[in-house]
Amino acid sequence: MAQSALAAAPAAEPYKLQALRDAARATHPSLQAARAMVDAGRAQIVTAGAYPNPEVEFLAGRTQARVPGAATGASQTLEITQRIDNPWQREARVGAAGYGLEARQAEGRVFEVDLLARLDQRFFELLRRQAEQRAAREDLSLAEQIRARVAVRVQTGEAPRYELIKADTELLNAQKTAESAGLRVAQAKALLRSMVGPGLPVDFEVDGSLAAGPAVPGLEALREEVLARNPELARARAEVRRAETQLELERLRRHPEVALKVAEDRDVETRNSRIGVFAVVPLWDRRTGPVAEAGALLGKSRSDRDNQELLLLQALETAYRHYEIARNQVNALENGILREAEAALKVAEAAYRFGERGILDYLDAQRVFRFARNELISARYELQLAVIEIERLRAAQ
C-alpha cells in the first residue's frame, strides 16, 4: 500500500523523512523476512502445545490347527497406544517456544530499527550533498563574476594579467567542484532509493533540513532507556529465558514416559481384550548429555546477554561523546567562526573593489569563508549521524 502511494505521488512533490520510513516498513524485503520468522515462531508454539497422536497397530493372519479337534480360521489383533503427555514437560515446551517467539520478535525489531537508522543516514547524507551542491553553485556563480570583473580590469590596464590567470584557475576549480557535487547528489539519491524501494520515483526530491535536530536526553537517562528498550538486549534476555526453560525441560525428560495401551485378539473361537500401561524407565540413559548441553547453552546465553549489555552501553557513550563534539563544533561555527569569516570576506571584497588589496587577498578570504561554510555543513551532518545512532540504540524510531 505504501509502495503504490509513493508511486502515485507526483514526482516533483518532496518526500518527508516519515513518509520514506513508512514506505520502507511496508515493502523492504529484510523486514518481510523478519516478519516471516516471527510467524514461524508462532507456529512453533502451536507445535509445542500439540498432544501426541495415538498409535494404532492392526495385525491379521490365520490360525492353523496343530492338534486334532483344534479350530482353524482367521485371526486378528488390534492394539491402540496413547502416550500420556507429561503436563510439566508440556508447559516447559510451550514456555521455551514462547520465549523463542519473543526472541524472534525482538530480532525483527532489530532489523527494523537498523533499517530505519540506515535510511535516516541516507536521507541526511542527501541533504548534506544538496547543501554542498548549493554552496558549489554559489561559488561557481561568484567565480564567474570575479573572472568577468578581472577580465575588464586587465583589459583596461588596471590589473596585471596574472590576476586573470588566477581568476581562470579559480573558475575551473569551482566548475570542477560543482560537477562533483552534482554527481554526489545523484549517488546519494540512488542510495536512499535503494533503502526505500522501487516505489520511490527516480527523480524524487526530499523535504528536510540539516540544521533541525531532535533534543537528546542526558547520558544517564539514555542508559536507562537503552537497558529497558533496546531490542538487541531484549533478544538476548529472551534467549536466556528460553535456555533456562530448555534446561528445565531436559531435566523433566528424565522422568518415566507413560502410555495407555488397549489391545484385542480375535480368532475363530475366542476374543481376548486387554488394557494396561507401559512406561519407558530412564534406567540407563539419564539424559546426562542433553542436560549438560542445555546447561552449557544457558551459560553461553547469559554471557552473550552480559556482553551485549556492555557493548550497547559502550556504543551509547561513544555516540553521546560524538554528539557532544559535533554539537560544540556546530555552535562554534554558527556563532563565531563562520560569522568572522563572512565579515572578513566582505572587508576583503570591499578593499578589492576600491583597489586597496589585490585579488589574492580577496580569493584567500573567500577560501577561508568557503572552508568554514563547508565545515558547518559537515558538522551538522555529523551531529545528525550522532543523533541517529543514539536513537537507534534507544530504539526510539
Key phrases:
single chain; alpha+beta; Outer membrane efflux proteins (OEP); 4-stranded antiparallel beta sheet; 9 helices; disordered N terminus
What features would you describe in this structure?
With about 400 residues, the chain is α+β, with helices and mostly antiparallel strands. The chain has one domain: Up-down Bundle (Outer membrane efflux proteins (OEP)), CATH 1.20.1600.10. The protein is built from nine helices and six strands. The chain has helices at about 1-10, 15-25, 30-50, 85-155, 160-195, 220-230, 230-250, 290-355, 360-395, and strands at about 15, 55-65, 75-85, 205, 255-265, 270-280. The strands form two sheets. A four-stranded antiparallel β-sheet has the order 2-3-5-6, with no helix packed on it. A two-stranded parallel sheet has the order 1-4. α4 runs antiparallel to α7, α7 packs antiparallel against α8 and α8 runs antiparallel to α9 (about 360-395). The radius of gyration is 37 Å and the shape is elongated. It starts with a helix and ends with a helix. Residues about 1-5 have low confidence and may be disordered.
Task: Indicate the topology.
Blueprint: H1 2-8, E1 14-15, H2 17-27, H3 29-48, E2 55-63, E3 73-83, H4 87-155, H5 161-196, E4 205-206, H6 219-229, H7 231-252, E5 257-266, E6 271-280, H8 288-353, H9 359-393
Parallel strand pairs: 1-4
Antiparallel strand pairs: 2-3, 3-5, 5-6
Helix pairs in contact: 2-4, 3-4, 4-5, 4-7, 4-9, 6-8, 7-8, 8-9
